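Pipeline run #58 for the internal structure catalog. This entry was flagged by the ingest filter as a single-chain record with no existing model, so it goes straight to prediction. Upstream metadata was stripped on purpose; only the residue string is passed forward. Reviewer on rotation: M.T. Logging verbosity set to normal.
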Amino acid sequence: MIEKNLEKKWLVKSENRILGPYHIEQIEDLLKKKQISLIDEVRDMETRWLYIRENPRFKSIVEEIRKDLDAKSESTKTFQSFSKTEESYHKTNASLPQFTEVDVQEASLVSETKERGLSNDQSENSLLKEKAKVYGLPQDQYFQKRVASSNRKKLVYALMFIGFIASIVFTVSYYQKRAIQKQEEEWAAQVRKYHFLGLDQKVVELYAQLPDSFQKKILPDIISIYPVLEANHLVQLKDIESLSRQNTLTLQQKMYVQLIYFWSALQSQNLMAANEALIKARAVDPSSTLVVENQALLELRQSKFLSSFETFMKLYKDEPMGRYLVGALQSYVGLPTEKKAALSAALTAQIEKHISVYYDYKKELLLGQMGLARWNKNDLLFKVSWNQFLNTPVQFSALYKKPSLLVPLAYQWTFLEEYKIVVRSALSPEDVVLFEIHNYLESSQVSAAQQYAANNMGKIKDKSLKQQITLLTLNSQSRHNEIIALEKTNQLDPQSELNHLLFALNKIQADPPLDISPHLQFFKDHQLIFYNEWMQLAYLLKTKQHSLAKSFIRDHLISVTDFTPVIEAKGLTE
């Protein structure tokens, strides 16, 4: 029976608070310590609320307490009773079961019961369920330490959990940002590589796939090809205007911004705005070759022929590029007669020296050289230049890359009309037909060339020349199989370097590529090193032998930096 009572849990209602649950032994201890009184109510899970003094379960302790109260006047007994109680408290407290799991709630149950006029049963069934909170002893220091320790543990666990979640979020965010940053760095490196190699089309293709935010980041590095980007509807002038307000641009990038304004002004034929932009570009970077070249081209448009001529010749002296000599030829025709006479010999010698080594703008330079030879009555030079002219492929200058931000339509074949007039006047009727075929094809007028050939073929007596005209027109239409079949007729001049070059090019374009070794041998025998190396490189690229092409470029075509096939080969092999 005693064991059963010890196992039961009791609730105590004291001063508007519900305390417990306790064992009987604990309640006795609380009574002795006067932390509860005999008029407080008590109940277990099977009984209703009763005063402690009326509950038979606590009869023994009630009687004991009453005896203590009766003997209160006797100080000695009181002292002994107090000592025993204290000793009992320490003993009982040491054996009290732990009750740190007590649920603490507000102690307003009793007051609300009285206010609402509820019975004990109603209090039990409603208020106790609503909001009654069971308190542990507020004066119990051991209990308070346990609660405080539990709260600290919960706080530590909560902080650890929050820290763990925060670390996960931070780690995921970091690696996501790092992955994006790494991807952007790879894109930037690839774009810069293509731009460095001069592969403008590859730059455009990759740039078009980038997010808008990254396009803005990489734009300063590729603004030198703004015309190409604009033509593909990737960049507009307003984007450059926004870019120009950035403080992070280098001097070269600021110079390019001004050249873009210059180029755009010329597109709209606003020479005044173009001149102002060019002055600003020159102020930013006065040593820029691109700025100086644009200055010479603008002076040519403004009919400042002598200044333009001198600038082009100075540019060529610093860097031997064929287009500078073409610019000088354009300026030359506008010079006064006495200046032409003074400068003719030097210009002629410079052109002759250039075309003996280089091939860039060779067709235009040969035309100019024939005109100069005619004006200077140098028939031998005219004849030599004419033979070279006929053996040079049309639109060959298109294979040489020039800066995008040059004056629009610079160095065009159509700007050499004065030289064409002079050359025609010195040719036979048969040679005029050949010249006009080259002239039409050079100007991309393929239909006009075919019509002209049909109307004037009767003026040509040599069958090999007739076949060469057919070869030229077929090549301009990329009709590879018909050209290869034309070789089998054996009606073309086997000593023509132009014929060998066109046959080799079209055989390489055939699928699978045909044997070009006879043409390579011809180039080798006639010391045509450039044509020989060009065809070998084209064959390696067509057959996807990129590793061999890479090693081939290291040893050949080293000085031909602006030649498009070489640029494309570097893009595929590097």
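catalog note: The longest helix spans residues 141-197.
catalog note: The longest strand covers residues 17-22.
status: ready for reviewer M.T.
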